[in-house]
Amino acid sequence: MDGHVLGWIVLLWLAAEVEGLQVTMPEKKKVAMLFQPALLRCHFSTSSTQPAVVQWRFKSYCQDRVGEALGMATSGLQTMSKRNLDWDPYLDCVDSRRTVRVVASKQGSAVTIGDFYKERDISIVHDADLQIGKLMWGDSGLYYCLIITPDDVEGKNEESVELLVLD
Question: What angle do CA 79, 80, 84 make, to 5 degrees?
């Protein structure tokens, strides 16, 4: 009887420890300088025995955050964002109103660079970090780290970081 109880305790402990796929990023926002390198960190844990596919996607701002930061643009959307604290006029809009593209993908040790970035010094290093050799003006925006595993589909499979490139 004691063996059954111990078995159930171990099973419950293991079930509590396995939460499925979990993607995290240590930074939610990163400010970097033009023409400097940047490393966007992405960590994940999985119970999968299969190699994960890592994909980084870029989404432009919904409106010009850099221009606004420099005092060159103003918007009535700021008033609206104060009413709804969860809504950000720079980040929250449908994808059809912004540029969306794949930056890079990695499966095993093979890294594939998206068409727009082929002439750039970009790679996925370590397990899932995005390394950009020289930042350009158009690099400001949201970067999504998406992890795909064939046999671990529960949990959180993507996370984003905002990158703001300044002169």
Answer: 120
pLDDT tens figures, 20-53: 899 999 999 999 999 999 999 999 999 988 899 9
pTM comes to 0.76
Nearest to 40 by CA among 30, 48, 50, 49: 30
Q: List domains and CATH numbers for the chain.
A: 19-60+99-166 (2.60.40.10)
As a whole number of angstroms, the distance between CA 113 and CA 123 comes to 7
Give CA torsion, residues 124, 59, 133, 107, to 10 deg.
10
Q: Within a 13 Å sphere around the CA of 127, how many CA atoms are in the beta-carbon half? A: 15
Reported as a single tens digit per residue, the pLDDT across 100-124 is: 999 999 999 999 999 999 999 999 9
